[in-house]
Amino acid sequence: MHQCQFCTQMPNQVVQCTACNHYCRISLDKTGICGVRLNKNGVLYLAVHSRPSAVHVDPIEKKPLYHFYPNSQIFSIGTIGCNFKCDFCQNWSLSMERPGDIEDRCQQEDELTPQQVIDFCLRKKIPSIAFTYNEPTIWIEYNLDICKLAHHNNIKTVYKTNGFMSPEVRSELVKYISAINIDLKCFNEASYIKMGGRLKEVCDNIKFFFDNNITTEVTT
């Protein structure tokens, strides 16, 4: 369990998460919509920090990124949970997992610290790291710790995301990531609401990263 950075204390031991645009207000012993950000004794914790559920070395085109380091390998890492509920999700076995006891579930995963991720990439000469498989915004503290170490070791970091991160998160991410692929799932607000998000915030974030000189690709 790792204390969350992106949150605000509220009265009666309620914590407001600021990782994504849901801004969940989380009561004691409850999680936000994502299922992995847990209020314990009035403090918000990330239950999946250093506990990935999926790791793999991929061709970068699988992310998919077409205009960023083509024909290179990328270290891909993901956890569990999501802040959306898309019924067509390709990685539903990870993203839709909602364990009854998140602490017990995460204790079963093998630990992989940010430093271990960096050491592996340096040893294997892998030039970049992707936060992918499930929505990386919900485990921002884990991937941000990896980003900071990667930045100091000349390893690039990229996001594969639904684009629903909060302004607080995007302002921090833009300091470290080099590329991002954002899913623009449709142009219909009603459909976005059914999936658990909103169209405007996704479009705003696409524009934000593009305007801040991050290599920005969009999956439709």
Automatic annotation (TrEMBL):
It comes from the Eukaryota. Residues 67-220 form the Radical SAM core domain. Its cofactor is [4Fe-4S] cluster. InterPro entries: Aldolase_TIM (IPR013785), AmmeMemoSam_rS (IPR027596), Organic_radical-activating (IPR034457), rSAM (IPR007197), rSAM_sf (IPR058240). The keyword Cytoplasm does not apply. The keyword Transcription regulation does not apply. CDD domains: Radical_SAM. Pfam families: Radical_SAM. Keywords: 4Fe-4S, Iron, Iron-sulfur, Metal-binding, Pyruvate, S-adenosyl-L-methionine. This is Pyruvate_formate-lyase activating enzyme. The lineage of its organism: Eukaryota, Metamonada, Diplomonadida, Hexamitidae, Hexamitinae.
